[in-house]
């Protein structure tokens, strides 16, 4: 009996010991820190570059932030300028943002100088008459058009274009005069007409003319590269452009220090006599097109709207790229656009002043 009692006591002790050990083990398990849940490896988020802030005073002709406050969203000005040897040197042309050079009768050339800021126009001399293909280009910028006389055979065409035109023949707006210094120096009268640009904005506003760009003309003249980019066109090196218009030549030579092309006319530097500077351009465009004589006087027909087969060249930053160019067919108000010949995509160009030669096919060299 004692034995059984003793055995029972031993079993009871063992049971208590096991119970204490189990409680201790559970306590230890609860004290252990929980293992962190497995998480997937996260890749660091890619930070997006902030969008480039285009200045509010961006000049739509150059892409540069140099407009006066009063010119933002306002129309540019196109001025016809005499470019024959006897009219040189001109003045006011070095300040132009875009210059077109196109043959007229006799295969001499004429300028259309374009200014993005109508409130900061210079005096320009020598102003010359209109040929129909110049406003065919200027209308694409919604520009005021300034000239001294017209080819009478195109008066109906100009009226149909509904040009906002200022003509020195009737001294429109009192904005024209004869440069007495040039008369005294022996210039022929036709080479002495000037446009009094500094008065232009006041005259336009006093006449109540529309100065705001139309909604569909608030885009830039070109597709521009970034504000801090100065890129070389896709193609080959080009330090010199030689253009033969027939009775006049233009040579543009690259200046690496300024990254511009300096212009010569007929082998001599083309200078602005007021600023005493040589004409210089960040971008040079040579646009080949069909040009023919249309009357006994020698007035030209010029194919101004281009096509996918219209050969052109874009030159900038020491390089040249072959392109094609066009405007919408029979729509003078359309933009002039430039495309890569291989990809057919619209090209981007560097910000700055541009020179645009419209000329006969095969009359240019790029070296």
From TrEMBL:
User: What InterPro entries does this protein map onto?
Assistant: DUF3048_C, DUF3048_N, YerB-like_sf
* Pfam families in the record: DUF3048, DUF3048_C
Basic and acidic residues: which segments have biased composition? 29-50
Q: Taxonomically, which superkingdom?
A: Bacteria
Write out the ranges of the annotated region (Disordered).
29-55
Can you give the residue ranges of the DUF3048 domain? 61-207, 242-356
According to UniProt, the name of this protein is DUF3048 family protein
């Amino acid at each position: 009996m004692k034995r059984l009692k003793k055995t029972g006591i031993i079993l009871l002790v063992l049971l208590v010991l096991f119970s204490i050990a189990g409680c201790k083990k559970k306590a230890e398990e609860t004290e252990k820190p929980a293992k962190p849940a497995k998480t997937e490896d996260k890749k660091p988020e890619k930070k997006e570059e902030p969008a480039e802030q285009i200045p509010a005073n961006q000049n739509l002709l150059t892409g540069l932030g140099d407009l006066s406050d009063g010119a933002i969203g306002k129309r540019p000005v196109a001025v016809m300028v005499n470019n024959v040897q006897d009219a040189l040197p001109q003045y006011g042309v070095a300040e132009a943002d875009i210059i077109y050079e196109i043959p007229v009768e006799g295969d001499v050339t004429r300028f259309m100088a374009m200014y993005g800021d109508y409130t900061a126009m210079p005096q320009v001399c020598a102003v010359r008459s209109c040929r129909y293909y110049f406003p065919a280009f200027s209308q694409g910028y919604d520009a005021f058009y300034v000239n001294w006389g017209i080819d009478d055979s195109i008066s109906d065409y100009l009226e149909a274009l509904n040009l906002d035109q200022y003509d020195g023949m009737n001294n429109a707006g009192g904005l024209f005069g004869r440069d007495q210094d040039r008369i005294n120096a022996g210039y022929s009268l036709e080479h002495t007409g000037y446009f009094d640009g500094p008065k232009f904005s006041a005259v336009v506003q006093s006449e109540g003319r529309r100065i705001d760009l139309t909604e569909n003309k608030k885009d830039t003249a070109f597709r521009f590269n970034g504000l801090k980019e100065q890129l070389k066109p896709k193609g080959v090196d080009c330090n010199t452009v030689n253009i033969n218009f027939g009775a006049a030549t233009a040579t543009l030579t690259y200046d690496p220090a300024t990254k511009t092309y300096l212009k010569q006319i007929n082998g001599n530097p083309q200078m602005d006599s007021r600023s005493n500077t040589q004409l210089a351009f960040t971008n040079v465009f040579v646009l080949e097109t069909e040009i023919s004589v249309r009357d006994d006087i020698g007035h030209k027909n010029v194919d101004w709207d281009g096509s996918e087969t219209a050969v052109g060249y874009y030159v900038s930053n020491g390089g040249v790229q072959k392109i094609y160019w066009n405007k919408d067919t029979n729509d003078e108000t359309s933009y002039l656009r430039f495309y890569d010949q291989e990809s057919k995509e619209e090209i981007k160009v560097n910000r700055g002043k541009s020179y645009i030669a419209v000329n006969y096919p095969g009359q240019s060299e790029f070296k």
